Amino acid sequence: KPPATTEQAQYALGFPVASFLTHGQLGPREVAEEALDHPATLALLGRMQAVVHPDYEAAFPARRIAQVTLRLADGRSLVSPPTRAHGDADDPMSVAEIEAKFALNAAALEPSRRSSLAAAIARLGAADGPDADALLALLAPPFNMSAGSPR
């Protein structure tokens, strides 16, 4: 079932997978409200089926495991190995992966705000680093209601 809201799109299983396969990336634009009715994404989502594996479900939430089977038009099936979520404590992202994720997720921010946020994050934990209020101000500034998006 297609998600009705951005929040549903982010926390669903099928929609983010279909959106990633359709667009080649998964970031804010791919789960934004205007992307929820993307024809190719919805067509792919409609052909997907999620099946709960009892062993993987029993391991959750301590371990998040998934396996994917792709059934191709020619009848062949491609099956992934059981895979744990990348970015967990036992499989952390590299600095380059974290920087790429930040760039993707912060791309819509005004450049000066994006660089201020990156600088504040880089100073986290330092004696002269930002306090929680300063960081929150960069992360969640007041909304410009006439534009419908953060300033």
Your description of this structure?
The chain is built from eight helices and six strands; from the N terminus they run αααααββββαααββ. With 151 residues, it is mainly alpha-helical. The strands form three sheets. Strands 1-4 form a two-stranded antiparallel ribbon. The protein has a two-stranded antiparallel sheet with strand order 2-3. A two-stranded antiparallel sheet has the order 5-6. The longest helix is centred in the middle third of the chain and has 12 residues, at 95-106.
Number of helices: 8
Number of strands: 6
Computed Rg:
19 Å
Q: What is the overall pLDDT average? A: 87
Unreliable stretches: 143-151
Q: What structural class should be given to the helix and strand makeup?
A: mainly alpha
Q: Outline, from the CA principal axes?
A: globular
* Main beta-sheet strand count, sense and barrel state: 2 strands, antiparallel
Order of helices and strands: HHHHHEEEEHHHEE
Strand order of the largest sheet: 1-4
Q: What is the helix fraction of residues, given as a range?
A: 40-55%
Strand content: 5-15%
Distance, first to last CA: 33 Å
What's the SSE blueprint?
Blueprint: H1 6-11, H2 14-23, H3 28-31, H4 39-46, H5 54-59, E1 65-66, E2 69-71, E3 77-79, E4 83-84, H6 95-106, H7 111-122, H8 132-139, E5 143-144, E6 149-150
Antiparallel strand pairs: 1-4, 2-3, 5-6
Helix pairs in contact: 2-4, 7-8
